[in-house]
UniProtKB/TrEMBL annotation:
One of its GO terms (biological process) is transmembrane transport. This is Carbohydrate ABC transporter membrane protein 2 (CUT1 family). Residues 81-271 form the ABC transmembrane type-1 domain. GO terms for cellular component: plasma membrane. It is found in: Cell membrane.
């Protein structure tokens, strides 16, 4: 292998600099993954083992009693998991649908005050969530939506500023000539969006889908405030309740957090190629 080819494979860095870079990245990866590994190890222990053994000791004997308790026992998280899946799916469909429509309108239609409206909409990203919690709670309480499914999903159902911004910038990069050719064939705006623009936007849509599911799956503050009792508890609220219900039983709590994380890991593994393509296409490399 020539020196030029080796340098190209190392990104133009010398072998020593490349080795140092990989060591730093490896250290960062270990720091990021260590809490998850500790959570899994703790969840496979009994409370007595956790109290008597060192934290990083391999479980001996290895037990799945904590997971059995969470899936079929008195502390079952299955109802909360079902509610969380429903919330995530409804918000995924709602946010993608309305964000796509709004972003395409902002990208392709030049209406009076459109840029001002777009800027004002983006400015809402600067408003902390805690500022809007009390007004939203009062509104939903007065309309009878407290402790209901729609009370959980309505505040974020109709898109998000970040999603609209990202999609708008991507739609503006789609060649207008492709849309003009479709219009010459008799396609209207919705058919152009569906058959021309969206097929070219699959990586970005996959990335937004992952971001939406992860953010809603991990949402805690609003579900905690708007719901009471176990009926509409989401997974994050139910997991937090375990900490007070079983004070000190960290093996059960870490098993609950592991169960909550596992679906997100599987989701990312399924769509990681699309996420990578999206980051490459938008220049975030």
């Amino acid at each position: 292998m020539s020196a030029r080819l080796r340098s190209r494979r190392l990104g133009g860095l010398s072998p020593l600099a490349a080795a140092a870079t990989y060591l730093v990245l490896l250290a960062g990866a270990l720091l990021a993954l260590a809490p998850f590994a500790l959570s899994v190890l703790t969840s496979l222990k009994q409370p007595v083992q956790l109290a008597r053994q060192a934290t990083l000791t391999w479980p001996d004997p290895l037990t799945f009693d904590n997971y059995t308790e969470l899936l079929s026992g008195a502390s079952s998280l299955v109802p909360a998991l079902v509610v969380t899946v429903q919330v995530a799916l409804v918000l995924l469909v709602g946010q993608l649908t309305f964000s796509v429509l709004a972003a395409y309108a902002f990208a392709r239609y030049d209406v009076p005050g459109g840029r001002l409206l777009f800027g004002a909409y983006l400015a809402t990203m600067m408003v902390p969530q805690v500022v809007t919690v009390v007004p939203l709670y009062v509104m939903f309480s007065q309309t009878g939506l407290r402790n209901t499914f729609w009370g959980i999903v309505l505040p974020t159902l109709f898109g998000s500023p970040f999603a609209v911004y990202l999609l708008r910038e991507h739609f503006r990069a789609v060649p207008v000539e492709l849309e003009d050719a479709a219009r010459l064939d008799g396609c209207g705006s919705l058919r152009v969006l569906r058959h021309v623009v969206l097929p070219l936007s699959r990586p970005v849509l996959a990335t937004l889908a992952v971001i939406t599911v992860v953010s809603q799956w991990n949402s805690f503050l609003w579900p905690l405030i708007i719901t009471t009792g176990p009926t509409w508890q989401t997974l994050t609220v139910a997991t937090a309740a375990l900490q007070s219900q079983y004070n000190g039983n960290w093996t059960l709590v870490t098993a609950a957090t592991t169960l909550a994380i596992a679906p997100l890991v599987v989701l990312f593994l399924l769509v990681q190629r699309h996420v990578t393509d999206s980051l490459t296409a938008t220049g975030f490399r």
